[in-house]
Design brief:
Number of helices: 14
Distance between the termini: 49 Å
Largest sheet: 7 strands, mixed
Structural class: alpha+beta
Strand content: 25-35%
Radius of gyration: 27 Å
Shape: globular
């Protein structure tokens, strides 16, 4: 492999070095007819740009503007904080609604603050309170001819009368149910001095594309936050009229006199970061069907001194199994019992039915404290399952037994806890140079360089967020699927600098400049293999990201893979991802163009037990005995986010990263610097 003469030496990487970089020989000859995109150092500027150089850089002609920080990023150990940005604190962690334009609701700018930082209702803002909102519906109207509705609730919030509605999120969809308790909670800020409002829009989700204006509108309610705070639980009928200020121009809207009822429960959330791990099994369950039962367990918690319970977690259905065992799962202490181990919990065991209402097998009432004490003293907690409708029957003892075979309580640190104490988030980039991208000199192909193509825009939008968390801003850049400058064979993990020992460039601007030069001097080929570059980054991560002696997380890497289609080495890639899942790294795949991305979706297919399919299946696709590793893969098609604005891609690709970092630390016993 040919070394690049212009690559910075170890001495020139020092910011004190005064050697002008303009004297270095570039790796590639100039690109004929391409826009002049040259690092500032070549134009007589200092060798390394400051952390604010990307504002107003040579790329601003074709890249969206990034909100300019009010603080200088020049200090090498500077960590961004919410006060470092001009924009006021906004609900930066709230996803915009699927169809903002049709609802005339303003889009939240998720990049006003980096994901995971600056959340106004998070633990780093002790003066703010946070409410957890849980939703249940009953007697919902059915718009389907042969079955019940498939309901979901779209939730909106506004701070006061004169502010616009902001879409917070949408619950999961429950199939064929008119009485449903949703498992997905919503979180909003709570200020005593503000009269804030909530809006709940109930939909029948018949179309799988998730767009709100493709569904049936069932009804809505508006509720003030103070009203919920006073009552804690509010149950009211839905209204079938159009919500004020929202144009519900849906094609299949139908009005009914009684659309149903909605129950809303609000609970104040503390800053507790404790995680509870529970393992549940049942034995000798009562037969509810002809030969067996199809059980699932719904975990509920009591609210206050009332007898009202709301579901907080659900274990998936085990078909035809009277002795089911569920894998251990994690839930926050706040979600499970509101942070109080004395709160009454109810484990309700149900028998699932496809065409009729689910049947009650029985339930167990207990507390987390009782469970913990029994597991500590006896190794497990055992309870009889009682059906209250059968207790008066003669010879009735119970409907089976429920066992908690695992119960652990541990502290979970947040993403903010780590980055605010010195952990850096590093970016590596791998770019697809396979022939399916088309001839780079032909307008309209994916690597065509004028104007900026999807590869460049994806690098810019994701990279601008991540480089603020990296002190030196050195980014390893690789290419795969092409015959690169100075080589004769197809490279599947080729450093675009030409030197595997020094594959880094400094900052996003130099990375884009190197990409453009690489396009002009690379012969596109194939196949599309991901495994080599994943293993290369994994090897670098293992070397220096974790201090094994002090158990500190120095760095966490994000591998950004940009590709135009499905991969050729699926099984090898799954194995490489499985190996990487135990390292301090995550993998983001951005699909450019309009090709079929079915295999990418498979790599990112989360499932009920946690973890992506890639981290749970290896070899022939069989479940690996060590399954349940972290889900480290996130796939997003560029075309899906492009229409929603330049911030949407960064939000969707990076939204899971804070939790992935926190989960890696928890699984490996790693704590932030200075923690007890």
């Amino acid at each position: 492999m040919m070394n690049a003469p212009w690559l910075p030496s170890e001495r020139s990487l020092n910011r004190q070095d005064s050697t002008p970089r303009s004297n270095r020989q570039p790796l590639y000859p100039p690109i004929q007819g391409s826009p002049s995109i040259v690092p500032k150092s070549v134009q007589g500027q200092p060798p390394y740009p400051s952390r604010t150089d990307h504002i107003g850089s040579s790329h601003q002609g074709f890249y969206p503007q990034v909100p300019q920080p009010t603080h200088s990023f020049n200090h090498p150990h500077y960590i961004p904080t919410p006060s470092s940005y001009q924009k006021p604190l906004s609900y930066s962690n709230l996803a915009p609604p699927p169809t903002l334009q049709s609802h005339k609701i303003p889009q939240v700018n998720p990049c006003a603050l980096p994901p995971g930082i600056g959340d106004p209702v998070s633990s780093q803002h002790p003066n703010n309170k946070k409410l957890e909102i849980r939703i249940a519906c009953s007697n919902l109207a059915s718009y389907d001819l042969a079955s019940k509705s498939d309901p979901a609730v779209s939730f909106y919030f506004r701070e006061h009368d004169n502010t616009p509605w902001v879409h917070v999120g949408t619950t999961e969809t429950v199939k064929n149910k008119k009485d449903v308790t949703f498992m997905t909670p919503m979180h909003i800020p709570y200020h005593f001095a503000k009269n804030s409002f909530m809006r709940f829009v109930v939909l029948d989700m018949d179309n799988d594309n998730g767009k709100i204006d493709h569904q049936d509108f069932i009804g809505y309610v508006d509720l003030s936050v103070p009203a919920l705070a006073r009552q804690r639980v509010v149950e009211i009928p839905l209204m079938s009229s159009d919500p004020p200020g929202m144009k519900m121009d849906m094609l299949r809207i139908r009005r009914v006199a009684n659309p149903g009822n909605i129950r809303i429960t609000g609970t104040e959330v503390s800053n507790s970061k404790d995680i509870v791990t529970l393992g549940v099994q049942c034995r000798n369950l009562e037969k509810m069907d002809l030969f067996s039962s199809d059980p699932y367990v719904r975990i509920e918690r009591a609210f206050g001194a009332t007898d009202r319970f709301d579901a907080v977690h659900k274990l998936k259905t085990k078909k035809k199994n009277r002795n089911p065992i569920w894998k251990p799962f994690e839930v926050t202490l706040m979600t499970l019992c509101g942070g109080d181990i004395h709160t009454k919990l109810r484990f309700t065991v149900m028998d699932w039915d496809k065409t009729s209402k689910d049947d009650l097998i029985g339930s167990v009432d207990t507390t987390l404290q009782a469970i913990t004490e029994q597991v500590r003293d006896f190794g497990s907690a055992n309870f009889p399952i009682i059906n209250p409708t059968k207790v008066t029957k003669r010879k009735y003892n119970n409907s089976g037994h429920l066992t908690i075979y695992q119960c652990n309580l541990q502290r979970a640190y947040s993403f903010y806890d780590f980055v605010s104490t010195g952990t850096e988030v590093c970016l590596s980039v791998a770019i697809d140079f396979t022939g399916s991208n088309g001839n780079p000199t032909t307008p309209g192909t994916l690597h065509y360089l004028s104007p900026a193509n999807q590869y460049e825009m994806a690098i810019h939008q994701v990279g601008r967020i991540l480089e603020a968390y990296d002190t030196d801003r050195m980014i390893p850049a690789y290419g795969f699927g092409g015959v690169f400058y100075g080589t004769q064979a197809v490279g599947h993990c080729h450093p675009l600098t030409g030197n595997m020992q020094q594959p880094e460039v400094h900052g996003i601007d130099e990375l884009i400049d190197l990409y453009r030069r690489s396009v002009a001097h690379t012969r596109l080929s194939g196949p599309t293999n991901f495994a080599p570059v994943i293993r290369q980054v994994t090897q670098r991560v293992r070397h220096d990201h974790v201090d094994p002696h002090q158990r500190l997380l120095r760095k966490y890497s994000i591998l950004l893979i940009l590709t135009d289609g499905d991969i050729s080495d699926m099984q090898e890639t799954k194995q490489a991802i499985y190996e990487a899942a135990n390292c301090a790294m995550s993998i983001i795949i951005v699909g450019v163009g309009t090709h079929d991305f079915a295999l990418m979706e498979e790599l990112d297919s989360d499932n009920d037990d946690g973890g992506s399919s890639a981290t749970k299946t290896v070899g022939n696709g069989n479940l690996n005995p060590g399954g349940g590793r972290r889900d480290i893969v996130q796939f997003v098609p560029f075309a899906r986010t492009a229409a929603l604005g330049p911030d949407k891609l960064a939000y969707e690709t990076l939204a899971e990263v804070p939790d992935q970092i926190a989960r890696f630390a928890m699984m490996n016993g790693i704590k932030p610097r200075g923690s007890l």
